[in-house]
């Protein structure tokens, strides 16, 4: 029974490693810093796809909507917009929100 | 009444073990599915060694594997000790915030599993 459990846990671990490697490929492709226009950001303006431009970068905040400590509305308000002023007014100079935002960056804002 | 109390009490470690397992399984799966949400929790000294998103993914996988071992009841003492130490590190890095205090409580609960060890439903 112990060997069966060990084998099961090993299989789960290997499966997870493959998932991480594949996930890592998709993440690393984002590191090439693509550029997006504000028009492209404005197309993603709701809870199903929420992009926001802040301080010259573009962020995909879709998965953050339900996780934002200040509630969904604050994030939904920024969907499809340049939310630089709103973000800086609310979170300017605060380390934690800045660090949290870094995880969602998908590219740069271009004219 | 004493027999009933004793019977109920004997289930307490099982309930605690399964409950904590579900916590680790949930948070582990969330880290694998949405790593970008958890990147901000990676301490600077760790993200200086490896990309924060990779750290989150590996951490999520570890929590799932250990969470599965815990819910099955496999090597309960060592698995729970590992998870308790892991969670202690997270709680200390988060600090004295609502989340940090909550995680410290969960650390203590996981450590209680280690102290109790094998329960009536664990494997060995």
Largest sheet of chain B: none
SSE series of chain B: HHHHHH
Query: How many beta-strand segments of chain A?
Result: 6
Structural class, from secondary structure content of chain A? alpha/beta
* Largest inter-chain contact set: A-B, 23 and 22 residues
First-last Cα distance of chain B: 30 Å
Low confidence ranges of chain A: none
Report the average pLDDT across residues of chain A.
Answer: 85
Query: Low-confidence runs of chain B (pLDDT<50, min 5 residues)?
Result: none
The backbone outline of chain A, from C-alpha atoms, is elongated
Number of helices of chain B: 6
Radius of gyration of chain B: 16 Å
Largest pleated sheet of chain A: 6 strands, mixed
Strand content of chain B: under 5%
Could you tell me the mean pLDDT of chain B?
88
Number of strands of chain B: 0
Summed up, what is this model?
With 111 residues, chain A is α/β, with parallel strands linked by helices.
What topology emerges from the helices and strands here?
The complex is a heterodimer of chains A (111) and B (124).
Chain A: H1 2-30, E1 35-37, H2 38-43, E2 45-46, E3 49-54, E4 57-60, H3 72-76, E5 81-82, H4 84-91, H5 95-102, E6 105-110
Parallel strand pairs in A: 1-6, 3-5
Antiparallel strand pairs in A: 2-3, 3-4, 4-6
Chain B: H1 2-33, H2 35-38, H3 44-47, H4 52-72, H5 76-94, H6 98-116
Helix pairs in contact in B: 1-4, 1-6, 4-5, 5-6
């Amino acid at each position: 029974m112990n060997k069966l459990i060990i084998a099961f846990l090993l299989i789960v671990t290997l499966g997870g490693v493959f998932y991480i490697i594949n996930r890592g490929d998709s993440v690393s492709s984002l590191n090439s810093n693509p550029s997006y226009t504000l028009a492209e950001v404005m197309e993603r303006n709701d809870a199903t796809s929420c992009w926001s431009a802040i301080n010259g970068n573009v962020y995909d905040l879709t998965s953050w909507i339900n996780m934002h400590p200040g509630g969904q509305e604050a994030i939904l308000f920024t969907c499809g917009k340049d939310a630089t002023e709103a973000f800086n007014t609310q979170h300017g100079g605060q380390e934690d929100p800045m660090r949290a935002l870094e995880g969602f960056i998908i590219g740069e804002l271009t004219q | 009444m004493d027999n009933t109390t004793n019977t109920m009490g004997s289930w307490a470690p099982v309930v605690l073990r399964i409950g904590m397992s579900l916590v680790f399984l949930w948070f582990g799966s969330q880290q694998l599915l949405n790593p970008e949400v958890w990147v901000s929790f990676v301490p600077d000294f760790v993200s200086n060694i490896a990309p924060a998103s990779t750290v989150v993914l590996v951490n999520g996988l570890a929590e799932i594997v250990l969470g599965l071992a815990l819910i099955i009841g496999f090597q309960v003492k060592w698995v729970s000790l590992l998870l308790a130490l892991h969670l202690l590190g997270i709680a200390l890095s988060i600090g004295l915030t609502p989340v940090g205090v909550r995680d410290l409580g969960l650390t203590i609960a996981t450590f209680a599993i280690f102290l109790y060890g094998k329960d009536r439903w664990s494997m060995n």
